[in-house]
Amino acid sequence: MTNTKWAIDPVHSSVDFSIKHMMIANVKGTFNNFDAVIEANPTDLTSANIEFTVDLASIDTRNEDRDNHLRSADFFDVENHPSMTFKATKIESNGDNEYDLTGDLTLHGVTKSETFTVTYEGSGKDPWGNEKAGFTVEGSVKRSDYGLTWNSALETGGVLVGDKVKISLDVQAAKA
């Protein structure tokens, strides 16, 4: 099968993250607006062209004050850096429908190479005859690598916000 174009289905997809808070718990959030360019054979991603864009202003942690702080210059600075992008540079199969997806992640004006694990979950036709494919993506990044260093020391030791951000995507794409 050759590479074909796929459109992300935002209603059946999500871009989620979690990060340590006060060194004792995880705070979770999501980004509500995102898009992708996908040219792929879903059963063999090794030659795929994948580009992903996330609208950082669409952050949602279920707390408006926290979301506004994350949009501010202390964190994402969405006025100057409105999006986070990822462009695949290398995709290697690990067998069993799993891949190492390496690419250039750009956040807060900084671009670094990052690797995520992608699992092809399967494909099929929906009740209207549209071909769909599903993927999960897992990985983590250090926010300090991207200049996101705001923090607050705790009385008990440690810091308010962790450095490691766990990223999780559930993607359903429709053949274009």
UniProtKB/TrEMBL annotation:
Residues 5-174 form the Lipid/polyisoprenoid-binding YceI-like domain. Transmembrane segments: none annotated. It holds the Pfam family YceI. InterPro entries: Lipid/polyisoprenoid-bd_YceI, TTHA0802/YceI-like_sf. It comes from the Bacteria. Belongs to the UPF0312 family. This is Polyisoprenoid-binding protein. The lineage of its organism: Bacteria, Bacillati, Bacillota, Bacilli, Bacillales.
